[in-house]
Automatic annotation (TrEMBL):
Name of the protein in its database record: Thymidylate synthase
UniProtKB keywords: Methyltransferase, Transferase
One GO cellular component term: cytosol
One BP term from GO: methylation
Domain Thymidylate synthase/dCMP hydroxymethylase: 21-228
Annotated InterPro entries: Thymidate_synth/dCMP_Mease, Thymidate_synth/dCMP_Mease_dom, Thymidate_synth/dCMP_Mease_sf
GO terms, molecular function: thymidylate synthase activity
Length: 319
């Protein structure tokens, strides 16, 4: 028998992150059933399939309803892709400690992806796709039963990713056991699609679709009203990011530069380096230097400039 949670859980393909996000909000509000894991009331839809057809359009930006911190989106993606589990990520999101505790996050995806018992899964998957372009074995695994079937804080929500090269385009399927639409999906989408684009570049393919298979797609009760507002959003879609590419052999060195906020001479990467450097200046209280550093034309720098303006406007209203 089909329960209401399972009915019609396919969310139609969306071209942009904004459309995917609003569609997910609408679906959970319309079809979600109440449940309260860990005592926190949510509405939940079980078994959803989402699809983003343009993975370059990866930044959710629906002012004034949902405004992400672009610096955290960039920092978290680079932190994961570089394989880091270091606590520097807390510098980009002071709320993170409430979810994962202080110190190195135990469920960090990066070390699992880049050094799983000595295996760099990115490299293995890249080689599998190069050796047999039709392969169905290009699997990245994150969830580790040896560590994660435990009653602890910060159990990975992303189980893993798979890749399929078909007709010259690389498609990616992400599986999550648990996805908070409001706080998790925009950031998870950002990282996953960046990985898809980079992997496509490493094997000489075009970027295909991002498929997202979610067991529990949910919204926490305090966010229901805000999520409802997204249905009224009709603004322009945020500018898609410029194509990002880097050869596999140079990947880690380039990432280290960008994470450190050093420009590398390629506009798309320099946009991300500027965001990293600018946010660090902002946190140190050097507001003018932060705004100057985020003054470039890149879409993430532009988003950070808007975020700074919003923060200042809020601070002025509060004072
Ligand atoms: O990458 C992540 C990590 C966590 N969460 C959300 C999903 C849940 O709301 C919460 C984790 O709670 P449990 O599923 O572990 O109870 O965090 C995400 O959406 N994405």
């Amino acid at each position: 028998m089909t329960s209401p949670q399972h009915s019609d859980s396919q969310i139609h393909p969306n071209a942009s992150a904004n459309e995917l996000f609003t569609a997910a909000c609408a679906r959970v509000l319309a079809c979600g059933r109440p449940t309260a894991p860990r005592g926190l009331p949510t509405r939940e839809v079980l078994g959803s399939s989402l699809r983003l057809t343009d993975p370059h359009d990866r930044f959710v930006d629906l002012p004034p309803h949902r405004v992400l911190n672009p610096a955290f989106a960039v920092a978290e993606a680079l932190w994961i892709l570089s394989g880091s589990g270091e606590p520097w990520i807390h510098d980009f999101n002071s709320s993170l400690a409430a979810y994962v505790g202080h110190g190195p996050p135990r469920g960090a995806y990066g070390p699992r992806l880049r050094s799983w018992m000595g295996i760099d899964q990115f490299d293995q998957v890249r080689r599998l796709l190069l050796d047999d372009p039709d392969t169905r074995r290009a699997v990245l695994t994150i969830f580790d039963p040896a560590r994660d079937l435990a009653d602890e804080r910060d159990i990975p929500c992303t189980l893993g990713h798979r890749f399929f090269l078909r007709d010259g385009r690389l498609h990616m399927v992400t599986s999550m056991r648990s996805q908070d639409v409001w706080r998790g999906l925009p950031y998870d989408l950002f990282t996953a699609t960046l990985l898809l684009e980079l992997m496509a570049g490493w094997i000489g393919a075009d970027t295909g679709h991002w498929h997202h298979e979610v067991d529990s797609l949910h919204l926490y009760e305090p966010e229901h009203d805000s999520a409802r507002q997204t249905g009224r959003w009709h603004g322009p879609t945020a500018a898609p990011m410029a194509p990002l590419a880097v050869g596999w052999e140079s990947f880690d060195a380039l990432l280290a530069q960008v994470i450190a906020g050093r420009r590398v001479g390629e506009a798309a990467w320099d946009d991300l380096a500027d965001v990293m450097a600018s946010f660090r200046l902002w946190r140190r209280g050097d507001r003018d230097a932060a705004r100057e550093r985020a003054g470039g034309p890149g879409p993430m720098s532009a988003a950070l400039t808007r975020w700074f303006a919003l923060r200042l406007a809020r601070a002025t209203r509060a004072s």
